[in-house]
Amino acid sequence: MSTHFAIIGNGAAGYRAAKAIRRADSDAQVSIFTEERYPFYLRRQLGEFLSGNLALSEVIFQSRNAYRRERVDLFLMTEIASLEPGDHAVLFASGQRVRYDRLLIATGTRAVPLGIPGLDLDGVTTFDTLTQAQAVQNTVKDVRQAAVLGEGIIGLTLAESLTGRGIQVTQLVSGERFWPEMLDEQASIRVEGILEQAGVTLRRNTQARAVIGAGGRAIGIETTTGETFPAELVACGCRRRPAIDFAKGSGIEVGRGIHVDEALRTSHQDVFAAGDAAEPTAFDEFGQQGAAFCWQRAWAQGALAAASMLGTRAEHVFEAVRLRTIVFGQDLAVIGRGHLAPAGDIQVLELHDEPNVYRRLVFQDDVLVGAIVFGTGETVHELNRLVAEKTPRSEVESTLALTTADSKTDLLPRTFARHCPICAAELVVHHGTRPDAVLRCGVCNTDLVVRWDGERGWLEVRRA
Ligand SMILES: Cc1cc2nc3c(=O)[nH]c(=O)nc-3n(C[C@H](O)[C@H](O)[C@H](O)COP(=O)(O)OP(=O)(O)OC[C@H]3O[C@@H](n4cnc5c(N)ncnc54)[C@H](O)[C@@H]3O)c2cc1C
After folding, report:
1. What residues are in contact with ligand 1 under a 6 Å CB criterion?
2. pTM of the model
3. How far apart are CA 51 and CA 68, in angstroms?
4. pLDDT for residue 434 is more than 60
């Protein structure tokens, strides 16, 4: 009898795990349950879809036929309501019960409801799924002013794509500066600068008290500072938490997310968790503070979960990257505890050695525990490794000095775009990048080497 691998969630972690299981075991029965209506799509590209740069067919990464060809049973619009790990069973919200041999929970996160009046008005939206992105796309045609509530990756995405559509965006920032849980002061200032330069109005120390409506539609916002301003679209890019309610009460250990060990196994032998829903307790020393919200980590963990579910030994590559994104064309990455302020045993080194590039290294007792890189994607891969390997300061400094010295010679004279040879995602290689630099595809996580022959550039898969 073949083994039944069941996966809840068809995002980066779940999809990657299904592909890896099928590749390793052609006899296995592989099922994916997702409450969404579309097959696997590139969630982090929803902003590009909203701004009109990508069509629906470019965001959807794998057609339903491709699942059939690969013999992966895809259950769309299927919400899992509860688990019975003792009986190796999942229960659908419709009441159906399905048995599995090994289960992967890869259900990502959900927005935490804001709890203010007016959220039920037309024109108020969150921005988590392709279905929601389509709904926003259908409404924005008539919108001239929008309010984005909250910071974070979704707030940033919304601000950029709505501005790109010519909409006047006001973004509410709850504290003195942008996203202090993730960014240090310098990085906040740079992100704020980019947003304001693009025309986004930032309202600091301000939260929404209510959405104002007329005739069932949103027409504005009332803030905690007592101001009101007009907005026909109110988009929530608010706090998130792992989507794991269905697992509570099942006996599987949960904290902020589903507790997992280094192999991504939960407290139950045959149940695993990966991606944003998982809380790898063993990685606490990296300061992940529970679950993270990062495509790159989810994608990497999908492969690791598959190996653990198959019982094969996977080389464990720790992903210390907590955020990897592009803000109005600028690379931004936060690795480990990159945002920490200097205090006690925490020392911080700020590097401004290249124009428009900011790098910040955080050491604890002379060991690298985090970094922030703004304005270039070049050293992110290396810094991830250095943080994951708890590298001493002297070694970090010599490694980065080498990179800097190399990068001063024969830098790429212009920016070019190429498709990833593995997943076909479009990647932009910026001028000033060093030929032979290693980039990582943000979609499929493959390491790629930048090649340049003096006139044209291309990307090759890095050989081990
Ligand atoms: C607009 C936007 C922009 C983003 N930009 C970036 C970025 O630039 N960089 C970055 O690193 N990350 C970004 N992210 C975050 C990134 O997409 C996530 O970190 C990543 O998708 C997490 O992958 P995952 O597989 O853990 O979960 P998800 O991709 O969230 O997939 C989880 C799936 O499980 C489904 N599900 C949940 N509960 C159930 C249930 N009970 N039953 C059935 N199905 C269920 C969900 O509907 C969802 O389809 C962005 C996210 C959004 C929404």
Report:
1. 8-14, 33-36, 43-44, 46-47, 79-80, 106-108, 127-128, 153-154, 157, 243, 246, 275-277, 293-296, 298, 324-325
2. 0.87
3. 32
4. yes
